[in-house]
Automatic annotation (TrEMBL):
The keyword Hydrolase does not apply. It holds the Pfam family NTP_transferase. Its cofactor is Mg(2+). This is Glucose-1-phosphate thymidylyltransferase. It is an enzyme of class 2 (transferase).
Amino acid sequence: MMKGIVLAGGNGTRLFPLTSVTSKQLLAVYNKPMAYYPLSVLMLAGVRDILIISTPSTVPVMRNLLGDGSQLGLNLSYAVQQEPRGIAEAFLIGADHIGDDSSALILGDNVFHGPGFAELLREARESLDGCTLFGYPVPDPDRYGIGEVDRAGRLVSIEEKPPRPRSNTAITGLYLYDNEVVEIARGLAPSPRGELEITDVNLEYLRRGRAKLIGLSRGHTWFDCGTHDSLLAAGQYVRFVEKYRGERVACLEEIALRMGFIDAEACYRLGAGMRHSTYGRHLTEIAYALD
């Protein structure tokens, strides 16, 4: 079994003043809260038992937004990260949640989309052996953790914000790990900033020869919505896909229906509760179509 973690912590200072009175994960990416997007990725991977980690002030709001997840066929729980102490701290906070299982961690401001993405996720989950990372080409690799692969496609190096990058493949905010990740995280030394770095976790798996990098194809899209420009670009992308391709992105209720987490009747009821919005009407229509 694989457990999910959405790390939606931090203060979102790069998005001030937007985030001066609200959480970044509650900002809109076109027509849905940002939090819907990472949650949708875990659902597409078939993960249903999910821990949402956020700040003390945001956890109650996230709980009001998503509840216990039962309406989506999920089991959602919540935990507080008192201060931003690094991505890898999620495994210490979520150790009891993970238990003896593998885990999928996704950052709360990441948006993924593309053809066959759900199948790619499920294949990665089923073939997991150690650590699986997802890479995406970027024009400014000095701003990211960068993965380098050899000619055979094997991951050979990981560098955090290198001044002279060996590739342009950024390691995105989606990570799959076996159960050893909890002990690896516990053994990390904090960085000079006092944080537990996810790159150090990934490097330990690489040293053990158990780290894999899946490159997302050109047909896939990834946004790290941590800046005003990327937040706007993600919203414009979702608008284009939904308006001109007729495809809904991160529609949690539709995903739950298509994944078999809920039935058509439950999907219809959820849509009827939002019937005055185009989102709600879409849910009632899709429930009829798939009944």
